[in-house]
């Protein structure tokens, strides 16, 4: 039981607010997204924003995401304009427009 709790704790640290990820399941497979809110131990809210990467703001299971190294400086529940500004400041806008083939 304790090992499961440790695994969940590590998983939650991977998916903190501002973490960039790639969607690996669903119609948006291969698209980049950003975690904007942590709902519980299994779900987060992600956004692309839609006009940049095609990922609309939605709840997503963490099993459907692959975390990347980059963490953007955004606040919890940030709107798409704030996420877009953080992407521009980090120089990731062009990268988010591309899709990865998985």
Describe, in plain words, how this protein is organized in 3D.
The chain is of the alpha+beta class and 102 residues long. The protein has a single domain, classed as Roll (SH3 type barrels). The protein contains 4 helices and 5 strands, in the order αβββαββαα. A 5-stranded antiparallel sheet has the order 4-3-2-1-5. A hairpin with a 4-residue loop joins strand 2 and strand 3. The longest helix has 13 residues. It is globular. 27% of the residues are buried. The model has no long low-confidence stretch (mean pLDDT 90).
Which features would summarize this protein structure in a list?
5 strands; alpha+beta; 4 helices; 27% strand; SH3 type barrels; 102 residues
Approximate shape: globular
What does the largest sheet look like?
5 strands, antiparallel
In CATH terms, what is the fold-level topology? SH3 type barrels
Helix content: 25-40%
Number of strands: 5
Could you give the order of strands across the largest sheet?
4-3-2-1-5
- Quaternary organisation: single chain
Number of helices: 4
Overall average residue pLDDT = 90
Radius of gyration: 13 Å
CATH class reads: Mainly Beta
How many structural domains does the protein architecture include? 1
- The string of secondary-structure elements, in order, is HEEEHEEHH
The SS-based structural class is alpha+beta
């Amino acid at each position: 039981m304790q090992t499961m709790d440790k695994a969940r704790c590590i998983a939650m640290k991977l998916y903190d607010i501002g973490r960039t990820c790639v969607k690996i399941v669903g119609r948006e497979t291969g698209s980049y997204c950003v975690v904007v809110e942590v709902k519980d131990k299994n779900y987060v809210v992600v956004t692309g924003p839609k006009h940049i990467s095609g990922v609309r703001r939605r709840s997503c299971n963490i099993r459907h995401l692959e975390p990347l190294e980059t963490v953007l400086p955004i606040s919890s529940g940030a709107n798409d304009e704030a996420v877009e500004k953080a992407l521009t400041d980090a120089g990731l806008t062009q990268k988010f427009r591309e899709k990865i083939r998985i």
